[in-house]
Design a protein that fits this description.
Blueprint lengths: L4 E6 L2 E6 L10 H15 L6 E6 L4 E3 L23 H11 L4 E5 L2 E3 L1 H8 L2 E5 L3 E3 L13 H7 L2 H10 L3 E2 L11 E3 L4 H13 L3 H14 L4 H15 L3 H12 L9
Helix pairs in contact: 1-2, 3-4, 7-8
Length: 260
Amino acid sequence: MAEQVRTTRKGATLTITIDRERRRNALNETVAAGIVAGLDEAEGDRSIRAVVLTGAGDKAFCAGGDLQPGADGTPFVIDAADPQHYVARLLRRMDAFRLPIIARVNGHALAGGFGLVCACDLVVARDDALLGVTEVKVGLFPMMILPYLLRVLPYRTMMELCLSGEPIKAGDPGAVDIVNYAVPAAELDARTDWLAERVTSKSPTGIRLGKQALSKIREMSSDSALEYAQFMLANMARTRDAREGFAAFNEKRAPIWTAE
């Protein structure tokens, strides 16, 4: 696992890097497990307040599932009766993750790699990176990642990508619903660090509980969501971070967050 996924820390941000540059950072079972392990590591450490997900090198963020014949984790070996396929496990873990995930798109993000981008909360991308789903070119459809495409993309934009199999560039106007910031390659790290700092300087407890609530509200009816939101807001107001935030506001000072 350590050979294919590595983690590094900078301040309150943990970066998870898919380290398979020779295979264009393709996704297989080991990579998926490595990302999950990195998310578990981050969520178990109160001093970590955001995660950056990226790929090694400057060619690909993630080119999707490993299509090499016989490669471990090829998408063609899927048991239709198994709801715990490694891609499903990874996406469910990303859904349940309570810290912000920033995709640092260092290169092309295609097929399942594009699904990972859509499953992240924020996206900073090279403006020349290609984004899209190419499954129709090999006789498939992007089934596993459809729920995440539907969350992020307008329907007709999504269908054009799915039906044509043709990607778009992160810097194109059509990518405005996918990417928060599209920048030249030389500015990618600086913009990612800037965005991470904007997030990690805010209440970690508020964000954790907010993301936890969002993952449930997304699946509820409006009436159920409002009832649940009221319950969550009342509980959030009792946290130490919320009390500190209100005190700091009234005292006109910067809050000191404890993640409690």
